[in-house]
Amino acid sequence: MKILLKALVLGCFLLVTTSSYSQSEGNNPKPINLLSKNIQGSAVIEYSFPIETNFTVEILDKNQKIVKSFEEVALIEATKKYDLSFLLKGKYNLKFKSGNTILHEQQIEKL
Questions:
Q1: Are 11 and 39 within 8 A, CB to CB?
Q2: What's the whole-model pTM score?
Q3: Which of 5, 17, 41, 102 has the most beta carbons within 10 angstroms of its beta carbon?
């Protein structure tokens, strides 16, 4: 059973890298097809899971310190919008985690 997580990272961000994962093992669903786009001021995360899943979205600076994190419960389908205008210009890591398991990680840059 495939689990789909699509994220559109919006807000003058440029996608630097993208990763893709396949179906998870056990209770840790892994996302596939994570996307980023360049629009204004916020991040929109769209996802659909066949089951409820708890996960955390973390934004880390170049020193790997957490700048902001968001706790989420992924229902069957949902769209979330976050204001990321507080971020300064530079590179950041965006991580989707379930417990200590990293579901997805990508590097973004605020222009």
A1: yes
A2: 0.58
A3: 5
Amino acid at 49: F
Answer whether 44's CB lies under 8 Å from 81's CB. yes
Three-state secondary structure of 26-83: CCCCCCCCCCCCCCCCEEEEEEECCCCEEEEEEEECCCCCEEEEEEEEECCEEEEEEE
Measured CA to CA in angstroms, residue 26 lies from 29, 58, 60, 92, 101 at distances of 8, 22, 27, 29, 12
Amino acid type, 56: T
Sign of the four-CA dihedral 102, 10, 72, 5: negative
Residue 20 and residue 34 in contact, taking contact as beta carbons nearer than 8 Å: yes
User: Over the stretch 1-30, which tens digit does the pLDDT of each residue have?
Assistant: 334 444 434 333 333 333 333 334 444 444
The pLDDT of residue 110 is 76
Which of the two residues, 58 and 6, has the higher pLDDT score? 58
